Amino acid sequence: MATWTCPDCKRSFGAVGRSHMCSPGLTVQQFLVDAPTFVSPIFRAVNDHLQSVDGKDGGELIVDPLPGKVLFKNGPTFCIVDVKRKWVAIGFSLRRSLETDRLSRRTAGYGDRFYHVINVDDPELLDDEFRVWLTEAYHHGAGGRGAVPKASNFDPMMPDDIDFEIAPPP
Length: 170
Hints:
Distance between the termini: 34 Å
Low-confidence stretches: 142-159, 162-170
Number of strands: 8
Order of helices and strands: EEHHEEEEEEH
Radius of gyration: 15 Å
Oligomer: single chain
Structural class: alpha+beta
Strand content: 15-25%
Strand order of the largest sheet: 3-4-5-6-8-7
């Protein structure tokens, strides 16, 4: 995957000319400095796992820190670490709906994808099951490398980083 860096905001994307909310991003260090102390170990657990998956798969992960959240992309955004007051809402997109009591909100379906959110206040909650879901999200987000082919309604012009709350209104 070739990445593109916006000449205005200097953020990286998985497609040339990707439509986006053009605002300067942060470094990981800047993101963590402004975050509550409970965020760092949770972010690092997610980031370390996705970096490991990415290293086995060609190194295409984009980590895009913004104020209050971090977007993980390898093409489209497939995972969002969204800082809340007492926890981190970890949202990820799969091509199936999960059946688990760990979900914090009702699963939202969008075309051929289902968006899941799990609130995490302890990095120990990022167990093997959770890492399997993140790995699956990584591969489906890539649109290749073992992922289910994209649906015919895939729109390459749809922005991949629309700033929305983790749980869009029903």
